[in-house]
Amino acid sequence: MRQEERKTIHAAVLGAVLFLLIQIFRTPLGLIEDKDLLIALYLILGCCTVAFGFAIFAQGWLLFSSRLSRARLYTSALFLGVSIFDFLHVLGFTGIPGIAPYISMEQSLWLLTFSRLASALGIVLIFCHADQPVEAASKNKVFRNAFLILLLAGAVFGFGNLWVSGLDEYVWAATARNLMNMAVLFVYLFGVGIIIYPGKREKSASLLIIIRSLVFFALGQVFFMNLFSVGEMDYLFGMLSSAAAYYLLLTGVYRLTLEEPFQENQEAEARINYLAYHDELTGLPNRRRLMQRMEEIVLQSEKDKSRGFSGLVIMNINHFKNINDSLGHYAGDLLLQLVSRRIGDEVKEGEELFSMGADEFAFLMTERTGLEHCLVRAGELLQLFDTPVGLESGEYHISLSLGVSIYPGDGDTAEQLIQNADTAVHNAKEQGVEIRRYIPAMQMKAKERLKLENDLRRALERDEFYLVYQPQVLLETEEIVGMEALLRWNHPKRGLVSPVDFIPIAEESGLIVPIGEWVLRTACLQNKMWQNAGYQPICVSINLSMRQFLQPNLAGKIDAILREIGLDPCYVDLEITESMTLDKETAFDQLIRLKRLGVCISIDDFGTGYSSLHYLKNMPIDRLKIDRSFVSDVMEDSNNAAIVSTITSMAHHLKLKVTAEGVENQEQLQFLRQQHCHEAQGYLFSKPVKAAEFEQSFLKPLLEIPS
Ligand code: C2E
Ligand code: MG
Ligand code: MG
Fold it and tell me: Residue 665 has what DSSP assignment?
């Protein structure tokens, strides 16, 4: 139960106890005979009540007129009238000389009844509806209404007054007044009931205060009605309860119409500020906030040159798009939250973490004494992801690319520093390294990238692509059993552009789909032409990109190309990467469709992605290609040697073929032979070469004429 609800119950209990005490001590109370004292007290209490009533009017009408509300204006108007009635009642009731001839006791009691009736009906009507703000212009309308009501009440009273004073016999009139008072009591209690009615919206603290005031109004009414008469003291207690009720109403209306809307405004403002400066998903401060913080740091550093270095690290999750595309946005969001939490737990004093939106975070170091410290700390962040991240569908190894910019040195403004760290992170990604500190030469790269994308759009039409082929050798016999088709782009101005530079751009822009189709068609056509020319048929490996692999009609497209060319699907091998199989179900369906065509499937760059061997056993694949990063220093790095030998032996168990990529020397070849690796590909045998050279150097005629 809330504190305000408890207070309301306490008020009701207090009222009941007060009433009981008065009833218990009614005899001694009745003995107080000093009438002057009673009248003086009544006058004081009455004046207090009237003062509270006018305060309600003044508060509603005059203060903070920019925040007008329905309840506030109507209560204000109501209590102007009620206070006038009360004032006249007190003057008449206490029989002040000079006024007594004009307001008789009976008239004074009628005034009181009118005042109670008006307050009871008014409060119930006003507070049983939800409050609404009103325009400043409505103030005059309310004032006019209130004035008319007052006029009407005055007329009724004046008429009643004539009528009352014309009556000799008061018994009938007193009965009518008693009935009216009874009705007033009922309206008060009814008011408590409907405001408190449980099905209604949650009671605000101010409505509970108004309920408390209604309790005291009702109590006062009981006394005024002489229901349980204590004698002369009845009216005094009635006025005391009224004073309490008015006071409570005053505070209630204040809270309802001024304090609560003000608080609501403040809360809304705080919420808007929070949203403007925080990322909703992770709850971290956002890019806008980072900008502010960086501006502060730059400003402070300009004032205090001895502040040392501040470092900004922008971190980007590698292959996040693949996770999002293949596991769905829910998993993507979850991953972002887990990553933010993992880094967040590492944040120390003088460090701050921000979300830059999407898969990017920023780590700000404000109090680093040296450049080295900043870079060491960045390295520590990378190590946080040595252990996998657990999502619902399993554990995933993720890696980050980091771009660092340091102040002073790598930019003079907050914007420059953020942009430069961003550039550094993109550069790290392009180069396939984990950390890069910003250097001015990188700026060129970002612009170049944009230009490259534009050129790429026209490259297909202008026939700037061609394929090179790299032989794949069966280790047992050293025969050429296959070739990998690798794409080359002959840029009119730049010359040869590496696929490492343009494939990611083609992938991001969607151009990879038409380009990939061109590669498929060209490689298959070349293979068929060689077969037609009478060479021993070999298999051509073609790389598929993520976007291509996610096309629902990929199998249909490949089937159509193969039929058109007339190439037997068993001479085609499609290379996919591990990250494409993250969403096991979709990947499985796609692979089944592709396998049905009769083509082979290989997992390229095996060992660098997220997956583990254990689920590969269910995937319809034929071959693993061990990534060349493991093969390259297999002789120097025992870890890599262990990886290569584990992959090979597990592949044997799973009855998969293994091809080692990037074999450059005899020692590596020897090692791979010992591991019973099936095939190898690498500069040791040949670099990728153009079709004509491949034909000349590696293809054998189908029927060798015995010499
Ligand atoms: P990949 O599929 O893993 O291709 C092997 C890469 O390793 C090729 O680089 C190849 O030239 C290089 N390589 C082969 N043997 C050696 C070696 O002994 N030492 C060294 N250092 N490197 C070796 P390339 O042609 O630059 O292709 C790079 C990547 O670009 C490919 O990696 C592949 O992922 C992608 N790519 C190439 N062509 C296509 C294509 O037509 N479509 C798609 N989607 N991706 C392609
Ligand atoms: Mg490949
Ligand atoms: Mg590869």
Answer: S
